[in-house]
Amino acid sequence: MEAPPVTVMPVTGGTINMMEYLLQGSVLDQALESLLHRLRGLCDNMEPETFTDHELVYLLKGQQGNPFILRARRSLSHPTAPWHLRYLGQSEVGDKSRHALVRNCVDVAATHSLPEFLNEMGFRMDHEFVSNGHIFRKGAMKIVVSKLSRILVPGNTENTEHLSLSYLVELSVLAPAGQDTVSEDMRSFAEQLKPLVHLEKIDPSKQRH
Amino acid sequence: MQQREEKQLEASVESLISRVAHVKNALHSFIYKLENEYERLTWPSVLDNFALLSGQLNTINKLLRNEKTPSFRNQVIIPLVLSPDRDEDLAVSTTADNTFPLLKKEVVSLSCLFTCSQKLTEQRVPVFSHEIVPDYLRTKPDPEVEEQEKTLSTEAARIGPDVAQKQIQALNKICTTLLEKLSNPREDRDAESAAMRQSKPSFNPADTNALVSAVAFGKGLSKCRPPGPVAPGHQGQGSMMSGGPTLQQVTIGGGSGQQAGMGGPVAQQQQGQTGKMPSSIKTNIKSASGSMHPYNR
């Protein structure tokens, strides 16, 4: 029994409910080259793309428990490109057989006045980091290999320090709700990256403490 | 008897010419493909071309080894006319059947009338002069190659037959073990290579968790909120932050040091700090909902 087709559900807004399917893993610095070679072979043939992004995470605390989190991201390598604002919902639990982490995802682009706007709205920046690395694509799947760096002086993206000796590897797909074949494809792709990197469903709530 | 040999020679030369023409055509189309369609070329099609060439070379070899083929080593090609002028005229015939002066039984000299060299060779040999004769009519290998061959054969003669036999056996053994290894089922190979790879892990699960937590909720990243009783968990992370201590000192030190704690490009609002410091700065701009406070009190 699959989810009802999207057109049957009440359409309240102009967007389709997109879900992000996510698998994460990491690879040590010394194994990065072999991973990149493998990805270059497995993924779609395109010029290897590197990126340097600065992500700021904003929190809006309500009276009740969970704060509302928005992620604002801008490119440090393309300073004139618009900012990218993303909302990620809670990961859907329950279906243990599903191989990827599934959560609701809303993406919009924003102008460069986004941080001030969010501050005016009442959001407060919780943390920020710089991420740089490579991005690959295979069909609808996006594979990001990135190095996270901690920002030592807030606002100063030049002065950064690596968070760990590994690169974070993320395999993600944006798909409308209800498509479960996506996670099968993701799992078979993840198999091809073993044993270099183990991509798996990591529940962040379990990592908390 | 002579005529039979002649006929055999003729026939074999004909078939050789046709085979070589096939090779030439295959090479021509392959080079064209490489030069003009290299963007669309895939490795399997390149392999196909190579396989075709190798097959054609094989047929030439078989032809030469055929019993019906007379030994070409006994034939000699002597150019009759060499001229430094460009030569475009068409010859009377391309075969040499009317140029067989029979001098001796074993040596039959093929005198080729290269008067049509340009047309015959498709403009590749415009002049049949004394410059091209050493290259095109060469029968012996280069002097350097000859030297190398001579040293190799003296070396081979020197080591003696049993040593040579032993070396041959060793080489055969190595080849067979390699072939076996390659043709064995994949599981055997995987077992060996898995053992090798265990000594060099390519990922660290602890790092994975650290990175995922950092991305998901900022664990390990310096918080912009000043540490206070509301955030006891973050204090414990102070040891992980190298730049942390200075930041904490700045925020605890003074109320106006709040600027550093705000982060972001612009901090229009001045908010009072939580915890131990009394707020000395009043807010002018309220957030959208009056009951919502950015910091828990």
From TrEMBL, chain A:
GO (cellular component) term, any one: core mediator complex
Keyword Transcription regulation: yes
Record's function text: Component of the Mediator complex, a coactivator involved in the regulated transcription of nearly all RNA polymerase II-dependent genes. Mediator functions as a bridge to convey information from gene-specific regulatory proteins to the basal RNA polymerase II transcription machinery. Mediator is recruited to promoters by direct interactions with regulatory proteins and serves as a scaffold for the assembly of a functional preinitiation complex with RNA polymerase II and the general transcription factors.
Protein's UniProt name: Mediator of RNA polymerase II transcription subunit 18
PANTHER family in UniProt: MEDIATOR OF RNA POLYMERASE II TRANSCRIPTION SUBUNIT 18, MEDIATOR OF RNA POLYMERASE II TRANSCRIPTION, SUBUNIT 18
Residue runs in coiled coils: none
Classification via Pfam families: Med18
Entry-linked Gene3D superfamilies: Hypothetical Protein Pfu-838710-001 (2.40.320.10)
Similarity remark: Belongs to the Mediator complex subunit 18 family.
InterPro entries: Mediator_Med18
Keyword Nucleus annotated: yes
GO biological processes: regulation of transcription by RNA polymerase II; termination of RNA polymerase II transcription
Binding partners and assembly: Component of the Mediator complex.
Keywords, sorted A to Z: Activator, Nucleus, Transcription, Transcription regulation
Lineage of the species this protein comes from: Eukaryota, Metazoa, Chordata, Craniata, Vertebrata
TrEMBL record, chain B:
Positions with biased composition (Low complexity): 232-245
GO term, biological process aspect, one: regulation of transcription by RNA polymerase II
Disordered: region residues: 184-207, 225-297
Keyword terms: Activator, Nucleus, Transcription, Transcription regulation
GO cellular component terms, semicolon-separated: core mediator complex; mediator complex
Segments of skewed composition (Gly residues): 252-264
InterPro entries in the record: Mediatior_Med8_fun/met (IPR019364)
Pfam families assigned: Med8
GO molecular function, one term: transcription coregulator activity
Positions with biased composition (Polar residues): 267-290
Superkingdom: Eukaryota
Coiled coil: none
Location(s), subcellular: Nucleus
Assembly notes: Component of the Mediator complex.
Function per UniProt: Component of the Mediator complex, a coactivator involved in the regulated transcription of nearly all RNA polymerase II-dependent genes. Mediator functions as a bridge to convey information from gene-specific regulatory proteins to the basal RNA polymerase II transcription machinery. Mediator is recruited to promoters by direct interactions with regulatory proteins and serves as a scaffold for the assembly of a functional preinitiation complex with RNA polymerase II and the general transcription factors.
PANTHER family membership: MEDIATOR OF RNA POLYMERASE II TRANSCRIPTION SUBUNIT 8
Family: Belongs to the Mediator complex subunit 8 family.
Protein name from the UniProt record: Mediator of RNA polymerase II transcription subunit 8
